[in-house]
């Protein structure tokens, strides 16, 4: 075609991209999720894609995954970008947002945030470097009522129920239960145990046992930790199961009470949709109470599709106020990409056009444009074919793009308009000022 | 509150962020723009925020503004991110997308893309480092009918007309007119002149004269170039004005024909909304024909709020096919941020909640939750107050958040539900299964 060098584009690993027919389904999902969040009164915010690095690094663990920004040609002495990193979640930016705009917000502040986040992980199944998260969170001054801990899974359950996903289960735990239990066993560094137990599903009992042995725990302590992690249940019975293990502490009692309250509040959800699972720890350091995690029932190893929890000290890093919060995040890309790869998404459309108006000849173009404008004004997504050409070619275009109706403006003055239903092949007279799409 | 160090968050220059009541207006605008694009049959796509650097650099000028990605702790030997940069517009990624998915797309491929883009510019009024663009483009195999050049401004005009903006004008030109005219004057490097004329509004006649003198143009050639740049008009009369300047070339004739065709096709738009302005050049190298640029009438120096044009050779860099395109971009953030700063946006809401259900006591919580679920099921965005507390406090919350209706479930069994209209103060009996929002 030309002598110039061709730069063959290649997909960038970990950065998903969809064809229009898949994107149309994703867009429908996003609209659905957003409407579901607003149904519960969560307000939309967006934050910049970047934060100052000291904000992103305020709580440590994921630091190595942060992408920093640099300019191709940085000017001498201008290192203003050197401090910027792409956010790796939406919770830290939200906490920063609340602290920064504290005086302009009404509390409790309920927000949703649907944005892309970035993590410099090694790409693998279910792990992306750029992905979209759909978060709801509440932050309040001095205290967040426990009712919100129960509202989070309810909203997510309601929203995802409308997306016809494969069966999934939301597991709930409480960090106070874990920490209080380990304290009750006389363990000096409960956080280290939480981090080890968080790996249980990946490395198994033996792996955890090895780490905890290295941490200096006794065989008895380790047995108790592993026994706790085996406890599951959909109701208050988990409290008694924990009690039987013998550890006692004030924090443990408080955590169990909170966990039981959340389970009670969600008891009207369909059976099996929510379960207490005392092995759930959530690796991120900032959770302090309730924690959530959901996975597909038939593929738990795929990774969590929903996650979240309560954090008491996140926003307080950025302002001298006590601003606890609780929130939950739907890992949209992770869910969506799996279903797309397995061809389990509902059919999408390659274009949003309802009606294609045929242009039989340049003389009839004006009439076609008027018809198109009329149909658009009545709410139909309408294309006027881009050039006068054979009708067969225009029908072929409609068929290729999945446009359901083809409109024939009069070929001669005085003749009527006609419309063809591409699904049934039926064609008949129609008035563009009155036509309604037939019920399918 | 605590002994820990507080990291005071500061706004990051060039990265805008909105309070919820502003964001709600932005969201409404985005929905409106998207619906307007779909009305003309453009399909949604999104591309990753990053591209390989060689894709971004394929056409040169903006290279110094590209942000590249790096990890905080890059592992030895893993330089896979070193080649990634954030996209600086949506046209280059779109061209790459079409080339990459060529065999899976139906042509002419009409897409819209509403995404953030990044440019490492020095922040100043109207210039952001992260901003949202709303683009429509058509790419076709071997040729894009000129009708699409006319469709682009029409769609943008229709979409922006619904946003109640301050007066603005879309200027149109054609690169072939400029290049053909300069060639007709015997100028050897027309692109250099285009780049100089592109600066006319910033540096004035004298500035352009100086650059062109340095380029080796004669005083007569420079006079002609500046005379051409002074031509403006809403119709074919511009063609005669150009003819009077005496330069002649095949490319010039072709460009004038195209320009006149586009003007003719848009003659039904309200007077003054579109004007041919032969000073418009658009700096970016990739435009080859029609170019568009719009600015606010009362603040032309603020910068272009809409821009675009025809590019013959963009997608062809990525595949051995001839894939010309034409497109236009609405600079949403630039428009929106100006109106926000000048307090000219319509009023937005701090939260989407229609109804707040009062929880007078913990015993009545169940009833409140049932009422909330019922109202949600009927399509009302509904919050149930997060804890049992004094009714006055709950009314205050509704008032602070601008929630229009407060619902009182029965305080005692057998008593009726009541709803209070916060705007009028009226309160009366209501059935949650039947209630409709009064027409305002």
In short:
The structure is a homodimer of 440-residue chains. Helices cover 34% and strands 19% of the residues of chain A.
Q: Which features characterize this protein?
A:
440 residues; BirA Bifunctional Protein, domain 2; alpha+beta; homodimer; Rossmann fold; five-stranded mixed beta sheet
Order of helices and strands of chain A: HEEHEEHEEHEHHHHEHHEEEEHEHEHEEE
Q: What is the level 1 CATH name of the largest domain in chain A?
A: Alpha Beta
How far from one another are the termini of chain A? Answer: 46 Å
Mean pLDDT of chain A, nearest integer?
93
Largest beta-sheet details of chain A: 9 strands, mixed
CATH fold call of the largest domain in chain A = BirA Bifunctional Protein, domain 2
Architecture blueprint of SSEs:
The structure is a homodimer of 440-residue chains.
Chain A: H1 20-39, E1 43-44, E2 50-52, H2 53-56, E3 67-71, E4 84-86, H3 91-100, E5 109-118, E6 130-139, H4 147-161, E7 168-174, H5 175-184, H6 190-197, H7 200-214, H8 219-229, E8 232-233, H9 237-244, H10 250-265, E9 274-277, E10 290-296, E11 306-311, E12 325-330, H11 332-341, E13 355-357, H12 365-377, E14 382-384, H13 391-401, E15 405-408, E16 418-421, E17 427-429
Parallel strand pairs in A: 1-5, 7-9, 13-14, 13-15
Antiparallel strand pairs in A: 2-4, 5-6, 6-12, 7-10, 8-9, 10-11, 11-12, 15-16, 16-17
């Amino acid at each position: 075609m030309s002598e110039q060098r061709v730069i063959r584009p290649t997909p960038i690993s970990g950065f998903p991209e969809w064809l229009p027919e898949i994107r149309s389904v994703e867009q429908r999902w996003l609209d659905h999720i957003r409407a579901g969040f607003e149904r519960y009164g969560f307000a939309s915010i967006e934050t910049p894609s970047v934060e100052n690095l000291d904000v992103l690094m305020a709580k440590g663990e994921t630091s190595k995954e942060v992408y920093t920004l640099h300019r191709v040609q940085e000017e001498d002495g201008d290192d203003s970008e050197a401090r910027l990193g792409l956010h790796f979640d939406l919770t830290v930016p939200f906490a920063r947002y609340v602290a920064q705009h504290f005086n302009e917000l009404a509390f409790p502040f309920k927000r949703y945030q649907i944005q892309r986040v970035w993590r410099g992980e090694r790409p693998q199944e279910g792990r992306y470097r750029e992905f979209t998260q759909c978060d709801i969170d509440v932050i309040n001054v001095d205290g967040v009522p426990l009712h919100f801990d129960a509202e989070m899974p309810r909203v997510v359950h309601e929203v995802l129920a409308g997306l016809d996903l494969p069966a999934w289960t939301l597991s709930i735990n409480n960090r106070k239960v874990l920490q209080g239990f380990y304290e009750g066993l006389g363990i000096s560094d409960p956080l280290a145990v939480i981090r080890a137990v968080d790996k249980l599903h990946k490395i198994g009992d033996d792996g955890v046992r090895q780490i905890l042995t290295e941490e200096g725990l006794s065989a008895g302590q380790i047995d108790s930790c592993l026994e706790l992690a085996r406890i599951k249940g959909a109701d208050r019975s988990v409290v008694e199961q924990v009690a039987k293990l013998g550890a006692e502490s004030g924090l443990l009692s408080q955590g169990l009470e909170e966990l039981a309250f959340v389970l009670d509040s969600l008891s009207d959800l369909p059976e099996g949709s929510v379960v207490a699972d005392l092995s759930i720890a959530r690796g991120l350091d900032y959770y302090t109470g309730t924690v959530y995690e959901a996975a597909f029932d038939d593929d738990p190893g795929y990774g969590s599709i929903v996650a979240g929890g309560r954090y008491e000290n996140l926003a307080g890093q950025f302002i001298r106020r006590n601003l606890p919060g609780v929130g939950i995040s739907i890992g949209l890309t992770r869910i969506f990409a799996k279903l797309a790869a397995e061809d389990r998404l509902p059919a999408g459309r390659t274009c949003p056009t309802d009606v294609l108006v045929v242009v039989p000849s340049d003389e009839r173009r004006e009439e076609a444009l008027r018809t198109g404008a009329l149909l658009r004004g009545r709410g139909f997504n309408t294309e006027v074919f881009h050039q006068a050409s054979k009708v067969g070619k225009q029908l072929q275009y409609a068929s290729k793009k999945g446009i359901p109706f083809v409109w024939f403006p009069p070929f001669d003055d005085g003749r009527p308009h006609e419309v063809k239903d591409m699904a049934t092949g039926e064609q008949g007279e129609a008035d563009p000022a009155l036509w309604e799409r037939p019920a399918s």
